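forwarding from the other thread:

> can someone predict this with zinc ion?

sure thing
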Amino acid sequence: MLVLGIESTCDETGCSVVADGKTILSNVVSSQVKVHEEFGGVVPELACRQHIDVFIPVLDRALKNANVTLEDIDLIAVAHAPGLIGAVLLGLNVAKALSVATDTPFMGVNHVEAHLYAPIMSCDEPVEFPALGVVLSGGHTALVLMKDIGEYQLIGETIDDALGEAFDKVAKMMSLPYPGGPEIERLAREGNPHSYPLKAGTIKGRPLHFSFSGLKTAVLYSFKGQNAKKLAAETLSHSEKCNMAATFQRVAFEDILKKSLKAAELYRCKTLIFGGGVTNNQALRQIFKEKAPDHRLLWPSPGLSLDNAAMIAGLGYHQYQKRGSGCSLDLEAQSRIQF
Ligand code: KG4
Ligand code: ZN
């Protein structure tokens, strides 16, 4: 079964053709980093305009790279939530229009669930359930009990900033370019990870929940003192930035590690499945490799950790197999969605 995947929930426009939920025939992503860079974060209105400009060329390229035409497509899968509402709407309407024009069923897919499907796509051995899903993206940080593909229970989440968002904000405080995650990882390699007394947030009575906004503010105060109004990043030396990047990253990842292992124990999960842009970080992979040697760790392969349409097509295939039919044209775009 050939599935065309469509992704436009934030600042990446993606189209991909996937066979039988697993074999990626093409995976085209047009990133808007250059457009948003000068603003230090994603500007929703600009994101929408950019999606409009590139959708057709990205679609064309995905079909060409896969050596297929629209007539060969059996299902159109689209991320219909969660994300920037205007951006999600664009992708959803492209999917609906293609579905009507070609008389092909279409399937709405939860973008966050698709992040957790990404590592399963490139895994040759069968995946054992229940597994613990660890979502670490720019918009979401969550621990998810995965009972099967498509059967999820949220067991922990951030009560404020997502982890990727915290990386981006800390990077911005140090005048590093957007997106900040990869920059922090780069500087952290040169820094001392025990340079500042930082702590990640804990929430009373909810041991599997996260809080990163206090950690982020602590970074600001560490540089400027308790009365900080504005950070003068230009006064920070290179080594101060490296030390802060290393310390912030260590503290954040130790928090993720501790809560993930606690959840895995509570829910008896031997396999941990990681999804979202932050899982690109090699220091994160290393800490889990060292401290969780008895668990099977499934990471997204290159090209599948940041937003992409292959994971949407892959999960869409499974949803269609389960339901036996596509979604109705009434399906709405949603900026938020529950598991
Ligand atoms: O999953 P994603 O592409 O988009 C969302 O669904 O949000 O994740 C983007 C996030 C950004 O916050 C970015 O800074 C972060 O992932 N990120 C990283 C790294 N690469 C991307 N964070 C830490 N280390 C990295 N190497
Ligand atoms: Zn994402």
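The longest strand covers residues 23-31. thats all i got for now
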